[in-house]
Design brief:
alpha+beta, six-stranded antiparallel barrel, two-stranded antiparallel ribbon
Length: 170
């Protein structure tokens, strides 16, 4: 399908996992896209990408456009003996918004596929209570030793898999 250039750009950017604190890959992609446009990206000490454009009217007011490079996700805070991952939100992600879905856990050495699993909603008393991250685990099918070999540890972020990041055309 022949996509509009803007949709192609959004799709390319959304394909890169970019949880808070792990923005190095998306930063590289953004700098590459900016350079393809014949512009010069600059990265400040905080890791932000800056692009300066010459205006057409020197006396016009300064205009600044800003956007986040990162995306919401979850962060591993404990690896259980069965290999499941206890997680907490990273950014504004809430379990009732994301539901049970596949995620990519970004280990230091390997990206591991997992699924967010929430406690059963038909448990006694659960129907009238909000689901929290304390009720969630990420199931990877790996042992703690296999997760360690992939570099998955407390502090490892996870984001929805590529198919869950859009763009969605309705």
């Amino acid at each position: 399908v022949n996509q509009h250039p803007a949709l192609r750009l959004f799709s390319d950017l959304l394909a890169v996992p970019a949880p808070p604190g792990r923005e190095e890959l998306i930063r590289q992609v953004i700098c590459g896209k900016v350079a393809e446009l014949g512009l010069t990206p600059q990265v400040d000490p905080a890791g932000n990408v800056l692009v300066r454009l010459e205006g057409r009217e020197p006396d016009a007011p300064l205009c600044i456009l800003a956007a986040h490079m990162d995306e919401v996700g979850v962060v591993v805070n404990r690896i259980e003996p069965d290999g499941s991952l206890k997680v907490e939100r990273l950014g504004g992600l809430y379990p009732w918004k994301v539901g049970e879905r596949p995620v990519q856990v970004l280990g230091d050495l390997e990206t591991v596929l997992g699924v967010i699993a929430l406690k059963s909603g038909h448990m006694a008393g659960a129907a009238d209570q909000a689901v929290t991250w304390a009720d969630a685990r990420v199931i990877t099918g790996r042992t703690p030793e296999q997760l360690a070999a992939a570099g998955v540890r407390p502090g490892s972020p996870a984001v929805p898999v590529r198919e869950g990041r859009g763009p969605y055309l309705l």
